[in-house]
């Protein structure tokens, strides 16, 4: 644009959909429209002096080695940071590399962490088995019970960890209230925001200090690649997370970053359509005679429905149903479905059904499953992008068979 046509700054803030298409772009000298995929492990220096200077301090557009950073990965980090209003982001090889990196980079032996008990299996492994092995003390609480958080967080608690909406029973945690309790003791709040999605819940605005995503879920949203990201202040991302991640090897590949950048472009449209489908299916299935329960934060009978209404836009893209008749009945439903695929991803364009008790949560002892509400009849449903009426007909036909 010629100089005399430049518009004055500051411009009004742009909306999410605009940011998801344009923010973070770094064009090469060729002026490509679509983001370039820099499939390179390293970068060339013009002189030995330049190499020395770059190792001393790399500038904005200067890279050294793909494990430290890469232009395509940086575009992904900048775009998702812009979406969340976070100061900075570090992209990781998977969601678990992000959870592990965020926690291990900031903790040391003797530290105390408080965590919600209802966690994704691998997150539970890190908190229960990895951190404790290195001398970090971890207290688990029922994330929906603020009194338990109050009792567990103490002077010297370094961090609290939680999943904004738990998997697969979809309990909603009050991020603002937990943040207040944690901050009163100087503890940092780390939120795994996967089930809430970057579109439907703004956990940083609610009080969280850092966010973690498995980009494998809604950010890709098409079941193609693994990825993760940690978002927070420049101080946390560059001084704490980056040194740990770049030296321990959990960085994102440039190819995956490119796929995820393209995923971000359509994420707002996809997640809103998926959430509308989840709401429609939950409402239509509520009270179905073959079901003990329909669990969905967007339904008025959900225990944290009011909190969900306050904290989120919509009830999310996942619902769970508890089929009367236990495991055998649940398996008959799964096997009878024609459009839904049996798998364990979520946030995908394809609608997916999962039987947590025998797959994702198989490892848990029966009493723990019972305490978490993971009953033998429970089926988790991740709503995809198919026509919701087709999905509803498929579910009704399958439920009619039992
Ligand atoms: C999938 C998931 C993860 C792990 O992500 P990966 O990309 O599979 O490593 C972590 N937390 C939650 C809530 C998830 O759903």
TrEMBL record:
The keyword S-adenosyl-L-methionine does not apply. Its EC number is 2.5.1.-. It catalyses: O-succinyl-L-homoserine + hydrogen sulfide = L-homocysteine + succinate. SUPFAM superfamilies: PLP-dependent transferases. The modification N6-(pyridoxal phosphate)lysine is found at residue 217. Its cofactor is pyridoxal 5'-phosphate. Pathway: Amino-acid biosynthesis; L-methionine biosynthesis via de novo pathway; L-homocysteine from O-succinyl-L-homoserine: step 1/1. Keywords: Amino-acid biosynthesis, Methionine biosynthesis, Pyridoxal phosphate, Transferase. One of its GO terms (cellular component) is cytoplasm. Catalyzes the formation of L-homocysteine from O-succinyl-L-homoserine (OSHS) and hydrogen sulfide. This is O-succinylhomoserine sulfhydrylase.
């Amino acid at each position: 644009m010629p100089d005399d046509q430049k518009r004055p700054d500051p411009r009004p803030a742009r909306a999410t959909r605009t940011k998801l298409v344009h923010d973070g772009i770094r064009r090469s000298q060729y002026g490509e429209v679509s983001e370039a995929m820099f499939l390179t492990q390293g970068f060339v220096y013009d002189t030995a002096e330049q190499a020395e200077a770059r190792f001393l301090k790399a500038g904005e557009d200067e890279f050294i080695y793909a494990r430290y950073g890469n232009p395509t990965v940086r575009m992904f980090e900048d775009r998702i940071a812009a979406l969340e209003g976070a100061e900075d982001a570090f992209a990781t090889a998977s969601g678990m590399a992000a959870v592990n990196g965020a926690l291990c980079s900031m903790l040391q032996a003797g530290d105390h962490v408080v965590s919600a008990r209802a966690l994704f299996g691998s997150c539970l492994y890190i908190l229960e088995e990895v951190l404790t092995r290195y001398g970090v003390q971890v207290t688990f609480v029922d994330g929906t019970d603020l009194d338990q958080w109050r009792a567990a967080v103490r002077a010297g608690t370094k961090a609290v960890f939680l999943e904004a909406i738990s998997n697969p029973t979809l309990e909603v945690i009050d991020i603002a209230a937990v943040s207040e309790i944690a901050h009163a003791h100087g503890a940092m709040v780390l939120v795994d925001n996967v089930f809430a999605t970057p579109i439907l819940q703004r956990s940083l605005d609610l009080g969280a200090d850092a966010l973690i995503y498995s980009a494998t879920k809604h950010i890709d949203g098409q079941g193609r690649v693994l990825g993760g990201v940690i978002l927070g202040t420049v101080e946390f991302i560059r001084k704490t997370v980056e040194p740990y991640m770049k030296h321990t090897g959990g960085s994102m590949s440039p190819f995956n970053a490119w796929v995820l950048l393209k995923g971000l472009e359509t994420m707002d449209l996809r997640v809103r359509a998926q959430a509308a489908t989840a709401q429609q299916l939950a409402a239509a299935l509520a009270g179905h005679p073959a079901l003990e329960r329909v669990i969905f934060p967007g339904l008025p009978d959900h225990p944290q429905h009011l909190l969900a209404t306050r904290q989120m836009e919509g009830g999310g893209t996942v619902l769970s149903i508890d089929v009367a008749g236990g495991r055998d009945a649940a398996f008959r439903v799964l096997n009878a479905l024609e459009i839904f695929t049996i798998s364990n991803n979520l946030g995908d364009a394809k609608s997916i059904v999962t039987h947590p008790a025998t797959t994702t949560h198989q490892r848990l002892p029966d009493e723990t499953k019972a305490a978490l509400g993971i009953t033998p009849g429970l089926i988790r449903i991740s709503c995809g992008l198919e026509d919701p009426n087709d999905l509803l007909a498929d579910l009704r036909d399958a439920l009619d068979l039992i």
